[in-house]
Design a protein that fits this description.
185 residues, three-stranded antiparallel sheet, 2 helices, mainly beta, globular, seven-stranded antiparallel sheet
């Protein structure tokens, strides 16, 4: 579903685009098993990946270049877009409060992003919420995508979203593979 409208932001007005693709069993089985078995053993850092001016912080770690290349190629085949990586990281989320945010930054060249759930207890409330913005600038939950291992969500970087683990009774961490891309036209 694609919806576009102008919305107010702290940095001025932006065209909000609601464009989300979802695919289960995204990563090939052998590659997924490799990532699944290794992901908890990374060295997790607060400062490795932080989106400026949002205050959204993950614990994250750098995946090997072979995983970054694999993810980009899978996303290009899925979407039919030619992509240039802005960043790619393993992420660990275990949060008690929501942080609705948009990662779009035209100065840094981010058009789209992907989130692939890798490891964690599967539940609707451990996934990601996607929001639309009303005329007052308030964010309203529009779509709620549950956590399911090896589920990929590809979306326009202007879509407001938040991890929803704060809604779950189970606060154990969830592990994902995330990346932001600039579309090359």
């Amino acid at each position: 579903m694609k919806v576009k409208k102008k919305v107010p932001t702290p940095a001025g007005e932006m065209e909000e685009t609601f464009d989300i693709l979802i695919r289960d069993y995204f990563i090939d089985e052998k590659k997924y098993e490799e990532i699944y078995n290794s992901i908890p053993f990374n060295t997790w850092q607060e400062g490795y990946l932080q989106i400026k001016d949002i205050g959204h912080l993950w614990y994250s770690a750098a995946p090997p270049q072979s995983i970054k290349d694999y993810l980009k190629e899978k996303c290009e085949k899925w979407t039919g877009k030619k992509l240039q990586e802005r960043w790619c990281a393993y992420t660990l989320v275990s949060r008690a409060t929501p942080i609705v945010h948009c990662d779009y930054n035209p100065k840094e060249g981010c058009d789209c992003q992907v989130l692939v759930y890798i490891r964690g207890n599967e539940s609707l409330n451990r996934g990601t919420g996607f929001y639309t913005t009303d005329e007052k600038g308030e964010h309203n939950l529009n779509t709620h995508i549950g956590f399911r291992e090896n589920r990929a969500i590809f979306f326009d970087a202007r879509v407001y979203h938040s991890p929803l683990i704060w809604l779950a009774n189970d606060k154990s961490p969830r592990y994902s593979l995330a990346a932001q891309y600039k579309e090359i036209k």
